[in-house]
Amino acid sequence: MTETRYDVIAIGNAIVDIMAASDDATIERLSLNKGGMTLVDADGARRLYEAMGPAKEISGGSAANTLAGLAALGAKCAFIGQVADDQFGRVFAHDIRAGGIDFDTPTREAEPPTAQCLIFVTPDAQRTMNTFLGASQYLPAAALDEQAIAAAKVLYLEGYLWDPEEPRAAMRRAIDAARRAGREVAFTLSEVFVIDRHGDDFRALIADGLIDVLFANHTELAALTGESDLEAGIAALKDKVPTLVVTCGAEGATALRKGERATVPSVATTVVDTTGAGDLFAAGFLHGHVAREPLERCLQRGAICAAEIISHYGARPEADLQALMAEKLG
Amino acid sequence: MTETRYDVIAIGNAIVDIMAASDDATIERLSLNKGGMTLVDADGARRLYEAMGPAKEISGGSAANTLAGLAALGAKCAFIGQVADDQFGRVFAHDIRAGGIDFDTPTREAEPPTAQCLIFVTPDAQRTMNTFLGASQYLPAAALDEQAIAAAKVLYLEGYLWDPEEPRAAMRRAIDAARRAGREVAFTLSEVFVIDRHGDDFRALIADGLIDVLFANHTELAALTGESDLEAGIAALKDKVPTLVVTCGAEGATALRKGERATVPSVATTVVDTTGAGDLFAAGFLHGHVAREPLERCLQRGAICAAEIISHYGARPEADLQALMAEKLG
Questions:
Q1: What structural domains and CATH numbers belong to chain A?
Q2: In this structure, are residues B118 and B18 in contact, taking their beta carbons and an 8 Å threshold?
Q3: Interface test with B, best of A56, A70, A86 (most B CBs within 10 A)
Q4: What is the pTM of this model?
Q5: FRET label pair with B147: which of A263, A291, A321, B133, CA 20 to 30 Å apart?
């Protein structure tokens, strides 16, 4: 086996989030898909930005957020994703590297610009995301560093990036590279619309034994399995993926790993913005997972990270996550 | 007199703040001027950005922050300042307009990029600012909308922008336009280094009776008057400016207006980031001032706004300032 250089290497969208407080009347007036993630084109993004209040910009991207959490917890990480040669691209690259994450994917020189996600946060702390994928959706397989993938304990993939064609091909190749090196592949389903479009791919990857760790929330589990009941959904998958992690928002999370099962409640906090809750749950869980911690402990780490991220705006951690773990878990 | 369209029109730097948590060791290692504002060139900005942790981007600029506060309080405002044709320029323009502020200064097409301020926030909530002025420092007098200036009750100028040559000429012309229209001119001294370089200009403007409302903190007052004692500094200016406002951080603020004098304590809050404290104090004060409120009430509004801004990252208000005023002042 290649020498291990990373705990987790991830492939994901390289996005800057543009976040603003909003209200339900605005969500309705703009016909937004409240609580969901909707893809928009450049014109759509412009239109929505004009309708948005004063905002702040914070690096985002689902898998990139997970790595930011992992790196803050002390894991060694690398990110693969594509930005354009513009200010948002430099912001994204800065933030990921400043978090101690290796990031060497070449910048794309041509149009379109770096991906942006316009996020409307309502008073109920729900986030409504509208993503212009920009340069991110053209991540070529040639940009993969297969040696780095072979050198990581876990290859982590976000479902969002399965939608555009080029990154999908890149991710398939990355899965092969990880497998050849005897590494684990972790996958997050991301969003129901992705499962609606690519559920057959995901079911095939699972049937082929190519996914070792699967992250889903309750709705995504239902979309993938066709079982709206949580237990039925779990039953449909538990023998097909070695590690299954199902998050249920405020109701907590359940995981199954090789015959073992654990459930934890969510960690109480004042919820300000739910953006990144799943991403940071995955960060905490994976941090325990790569350290071969007991399943319940992995889930607890996930719940602690998720609680931190929803207590403030933005999907990148602000608190000292290592201190938080020490405080909460001793 | 021209019909009044605005309560306040301001000329200032059009800046996007890039803010990150830092520590005193970093401030020392980078030889930064803790608590101050230092101008940096493009290379300096690049070097500091590389040394900075994961950041967030929030529109800034001293006078622009003041207008954001004023507009949030319900005042009618317009901003004059120059951005470049880039993503940060679009962010700045979006945020100011989304706050309900008129902003029609043409975008500058050439290099350099939009102004950026790299802000290191230490655990003591102090902000250390390093500003690359970019397009902002080339604001031409031709960009002034003199009709808009004539239509505003108050022309508000930030001292920071007195430093570069073109905006200084533009501001002199703006003062003339305001005076011809019988309007008030308000000026904030911004920073000691500006007074060190341009104190003679400021003293001449004051001697010529061209400044109606002067904002200074204790240190700036000392630099301008040569009197380190607060009362001596006040005594040196009180007969030369119709309204003098002196802020003393946590010790509160004092104002003198045509024989009247008032002092208020600061408003207690959990201080997270002092960026924008003076800017938002000016917002609250001016909101009362244009409504011809008693001097003490103007200061109270300033203190409430300042407390809001230092309770979170960034120099743009997050709370509902009108609701806050109603709650605190009844």
A1: 6-13+61-105+139-329 (3.40.1190.20)
A2: yes
A3: A56
A4: 0.97
A5: B133
